[in-house]
Amino acid sequence: MLAKLSQVNVLAPLSGTIVPIEEVPDPAFAQKMVGDGLSIDPLTDVVLAPIDGQVIDFQSSHHAIVIAGEAGVKIMVHVGLDTVLLEGKGFSALVSKGDMVRAGQPLLRFDRDYVARNAASVLTEIVVVNGEIVARIDKASGMAEAGRSVLLTLHLEVEASDGTPPEHDGEMLHSPVIELRNPAGLHARPAATLATEARKFSARVVLSCGELEADAKSAVEVMALATRLGDKVRLSGRGSDAAQALDRLAHLLRDGCGERIDDATRLAASRQAQDTCSAPVAQADTSNDRAFAGVAASPGLAVGHIVQWRDAELEFDETGSSFDEERARLHAALEIARNQIRSLAPHGAQGDAPEVQIMEAHLALLDDPLLVDPTEASLRTGVSAPGAWHAACQSVVRRLQQHASAQLRERATDVRDIGTRVLTLLTGGKRSTPVLGDRSIVLAHDLTPSDTVSLDRSKVVGICTVAGGPTSHVAILARSMGIPAICGMPAAALSLSDSTFAVLDGTAGVLQTDPDPTLLADVGRRQEAAAVQHRANQQAAHRIGSTRDGHRVEVVANVRDAAEAREAMASGGEGVGLLRSEFLFEDRTAPPDEDEQAAAYQAVAAELGTQRRLIVRTLDVGGDKPLRYLPLPKEDNPFLGLRGIRVSLAYPELFRSQLRAMLRAAPAGNLHIMFPMVSDLDEVLAAKCILREEQMKYPHPVKIGLMIEVPAAVAIVEALAQEVDFFSIGTNDLAQYTLAIDRGHAKLSSQVDTLHPAVLKMIDLTVKGAHANGKWVGVCGAMASDPVATAILVGLGIDELSVSVPAIPAIKAELSRLDFEACRTLAQRVLKLGSAAQVRAAIAG
Ligand code: PEP
Ligand code: MG
């Protein structure tokens, strides 16, 4: 029951011309859905409290505030129209929710010019949101003076109530969960529409979002939920017409409560796409709490909805068939796992070598009653072999993790490892992955290379990961797929709701959630400009790669399979400078056999023909590219451990079968073989010796090359040049090893800048050493795909640039603009500088 007050005066919160509420160009106000009152066309920019009372709602965007007076009167001041979309830009709060205020006290300040330019209107509404307690309203007209003019005189119902008491009887009914599609959540207008409709029913209806609840009949309470696009809400109701109320209100919520959802969605759709422009989004500042800054990993802009990529689990049915069948299934998988582990024994390793000890430990675990007994016990209760094995492993892992002994805690990793190995065998490696809608921005802690390449390019417009940096493999793959990406995101981004609307700027490394219309418009303009630039670049794409004064530099592609090779040739690629063969080995339970590999290499060769060069790199795993079936020892510094050529020499059977497959494919094209991560002449001699032995069976001549990725290789390049035909510089690794920064380091990887003079010096030394011995040098690291670096690489004498497929036209276009002598002068100048920033400044200047 309300206090017996007959009259309340509402002061003008702003000075300006009074406008009848019916004339406000927004139906929610004009039709008094939010409440009755007046509007002011403001001349001042500080909103004053219209009554004494408490701030009971203050939208996070600070464009609307509600004060509850002593008499129960609730007055809302709503600055401008559609100002919720400004998301707080141009507004500053002077009070907070919960504060007691006096009439005339400043509540908030706004930038009138900014609001006038960026919102639908500056007209400011002052309305009574609980009009049911008011019998009559006297309204002023003409001009209002802030804090002095009485704008509204409210004549209250004496002994008024909050309206017909809602019904509390009957069964509580619930609607399904509804995902909000309103771009700015349930702000004033949709909240008012919902409340107006809810009031047509006698049932009590509650709208809940997470832990919070609101009376659906109160627009203020609904607004106070502070919902956002993609939030999941539910209606609950009790009363004689609760079913009808829930049905109607659920429809209304799904349709956007009178908001033009489709228009908002269409606007976003028309602006989504990717570009290759190198300028960051002008408004993509990270000063608001909806922006997340990471490391620029793959250039371009994308507009879409977040899809959280939770760790993809192996998929299996919990219920099994008979005990005998499931037991046989389990033991067959355990036997295959044993054979796998034994067959991958490193060549020549002694019994006390760490990898041998790990293998033995894994073999012992496969027979451990701690795992096998509870698994079999579960099988007796009807659980499937994968279900029972998984549960047993999980339980042992948990127990080990809690153990006081550090040694036993470490064993949890081994149990997890063999657990996954056996589960992969039991399930055939089938994994459940998130459902992707159109225009998905995939957000993950990390993505494996195989997860990344399996992303549906027709649906995924952007990728963000918390782990990794610009030269981590997810970044390399995103670039090759032409998908804008950010790595090194703050972990807080993993809490963003699925469907959150966002702009991803892969060039600036910023994800802006709930973007405002200004940013969306800017993104649209940049995407159009990039498309124009791309079309212009494509005209140069099929010309031979050279500078404008005729210095020849081949522009070839980095690919992983035949389909990408075809795309590369269609985009103007002059050959393949790097076939990353490891993609054939990932996401499977056993390595591909020789026939499968030979067929895969032949297919790539067939795309290129016999003239264009195809450089196939031998297996490059380890570091951040583990293989499930290859039990590499756990290392404190995997990037400094068993990686690249070291793995091939440690597992010679694997290496030999790959070399045989390459030699079998060689007659189909102009095939070259390249060894990764070389740091010592002996490694090259050992690899060549194995190759020569295999060539006895398949005597096709092939050219041999080395990747220069380690400073040690640079230092001995002249000796290496005696043994091989060419070099290709892996600048991703060369930079991490030269600068001593892990390329996947979430915080530091942005500093792995290949334009650092130290890295340039390494390139310079390599080119000089190779050319002095008549060998040519390419670059196949990500640096080759960056037009900013092209002049310097050309100036340092690089003969071939092997780039991601989407970058081919841009690099060829950049080359055609350069003058070779000018490039040489620039290169010599930057070699004397002391930081990447100075080099970048020299390029720009
Ligand atoms: C490199 O290191 O630059 C390179 C091309 O190899 P990857 O990125 O595959 O390690
Ligand atoms: Mg490398």
UniProtKB/TrEMBL annotation:
It catalyses: L-histidyl-[protein] + phosphoenolpyruvate = N(pros)-phospho-L-histidyl-[protein] + pyruvate. Its cofactor is Mg(2+). It is found in: Cytoplasm. This is phosphoenolpyruvate--protein phosphotransferase. Belongs to the PEP-utilizing enzyme family. GO terms for biological process: phosphoenolpyruvate-dependent sugar phosphotransferase system. Residues 173-260 form the HPr domain. Keywords: Cytoplasm, Kinase, Magnesium, Metal-binding, Phosphotransferase system, Pyruvate, Sugar transport, Transferase, Transport. Residues 26-130 form the PTS EIIA type-1 domain. PANTHER family: PHOSPHOENOLPYRUVATE-PROTEIN PHOSPHOTRANSFERASE. Its EC number is 2.7.3.9. One of its GO terms (molecular function) is kinase activity. Transmembrane segments: none annotated. It is an enzyme of class 2 (transferase). InterPro entries: Dup_hybrid_motif (IPR011055), HPr-like (IPR000032), HPr-like_sf (IPR035895), PEP-util_enz_mobile_dom (IPR008279), PEP-utilizing_PTS_enzyme (IPR050499), PEP_util_C (IPR000121), PEP_util_CS (IPR023151), Phosphohistidine_dom_sf (IPR036637). One of its GO terms (cellular component) is cytoplasm. It comes from Paraburkholderia phenazinium. It comes from the Bacteria.
